[in-house]
Amino acid sequence: MSDAQPASPSPTAPAEAARLTHGATSLSVAVAVVLIGLKVFAWAASGSVALLASLVDSSLDLVASLATFYAVRWAAAPPDEGHRYGRGKAVAFAGLLQAGLVFASSLFVGWEAVDRIVEPREVANGGWAVAVMIVSILLTLVLVAVQTRAIRKTGSIAVKGDRAHYAADLGSNVVALVGVGSAALLGAAPLDAAAGLIVAVWLFWGATSVLKEAALHLLDRALPAADQARILELVLEDPRIHGAHQLRTRASGTVWLIQMHVDLDPYLTLEAAHEIVVGAERRILAAHPLADIIIHPDPKGRAEPHGGAFGEGTADETEAPPRT
After folding, report:
1. Which residues contact 280 (CB under 8 A, 6 or more apart)?
2. Using one digit for the tens of pLDDT, what is the confidence trace for 180-220?
3. What angle is formed at CA 306 by the lines to CA 305 and CA 311, rounded to 5 degrees?
4. pTM for this structure?
5. How far apart are the C-alpha atoms of 153 and 141, rounded to whole Å?
6. Contact 29, 69 (CB under 8 A)
7. Looking at the DSSP assignment, which residues form a beta bridge with residue 4?
8. Judging by DSSP bridges, how do beta strands 255-264 and 291-299 pair with one another?
9. Which contiguous run of DSSP H or E holds residue 227?
């Protein structure tokens, strides 16, 4: 899989971001509960393995959606003495849980599908099963649309992981619909089992992408190169800033954590240097309100190497060359 990173979300005020993520996660839980109820009824009536696959997927979706629901709310709590950087990493842990549950469901569904291929069983009451799958597809489409809007505004990795589940569900529900319909209308029971096997593979593949993104988030992967370049561009809009270096970026939930050093005239007063640095911070915040920024001023041409374990001397391809 590619290491390419997705585009950054559009600027959103913290209160609006919280409202969007809370709404998306609440709807996710509600949809999962409705789908489980419908699929339990339809599976009990039909015995379809494709429908069982979809039911298991929806059941694990509910667990994952509940984890996301609480993780998003916990991560939104303000920093305190014990969590000075906030709790944004909670959403990545929710993503890991989601991936693990989907892996488990893919193995269970795959096993059941292979068993039905070896020993085919007829699908009963196929009409009910087909109707339930159609309703499932429509509800999932609405949910994915809401989640997509929230992601565009907030970039929430938890909502992104949840959407990955339900986007995969759209495909798996279509496959299950084809399998159930074929078995019910054509009497081709092996097609139902084959559809369940396709769903299992689909789920496994979707879980790998969620796992990768959550892991990179927990490992403090830097922001995309385009975002780093934009940060430097905003900082250097002030001609009194002669250069920037030691740019470090990472994300904690939807919050960007940004650190850098800037080169200033060594004869500036402390008050003047402070005013320049605060101006740079405000330009970044105007473009990305959910950011925590630390900018360290260095006297141009006079700063000795410093910064600790990851300080001066570590190459950074996003560093801005000093102004001449």
Report:
1. 234, 235, 238, 241, 262, 295
2. 666 555 555 566 667 667 777 777 877 787 788 788 888 88
3. 105
4. 0.65
5. 19
6. yes
7. none
8. parallel
9. helix 225-235
